[in-house]
């Protein structure tokens, strides 16, 4: 068995802790990224709706102004 190094139980345990910690951090980071992406989509939709409502209000005000003149 060339190139294979025997490691102690302590080294193996430390390696497992490191691997599990890295996986947990990666999972949390992925979850946060998904949450941020969803928040961005909601924000964009809200801006689109606000813009639409504003344009409809302007149209209504212009229509009322033309009707009153």
Quickly describe the structure.
Helices cover 87% and strands 0% of the residues. By secondary structure, it is an all-alpha fold.
Protein structure class: mainly alpha
Net shape? rod-shaped
Largest sheet: none
Radius of gyration: 29 Å
Q: N- to C-terminal separation? A: 96 Å
Count every helix, treating DSSP H or I runs of 4 or more residues as helices: 1
Round the mean pLDDT to the nearest integer and report it.
Answer: 84
Number of strands: 0
Helix content: over 70%
What is the H/E order? Answer: H
Unreliably modeled segments: none
- Content of β-strand: under 5%
Question: What can you see in these coordinates?
Answer:
The radius of gyration is 29 Å and the shape is rod-shaped. The mean pLDDT is 84. With 69 residues, it is mostly helical. The protein has one helix spanning 9-68.
Q: Topology of this structure?
A:
Elements: H1 9-68
Defining key terms:
about 0% strand; about 70 residues; about 85% helix; single chain
């Amino acid at each position: 068995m060339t190139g294979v190094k025997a490691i102690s139980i302590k080294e193996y345990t430390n390696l497992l802790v490191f691997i599990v910690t890295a996986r947990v951090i990666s999972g949390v980071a992925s979850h946060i990224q998904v949450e941020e992406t969803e928040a961005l989509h909601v924000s964009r939709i809200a801006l689109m709706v606000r813009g639409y409502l504003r344009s409809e209000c302007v149209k209504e005000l212009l229509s009322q102004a033309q009707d009153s003149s």
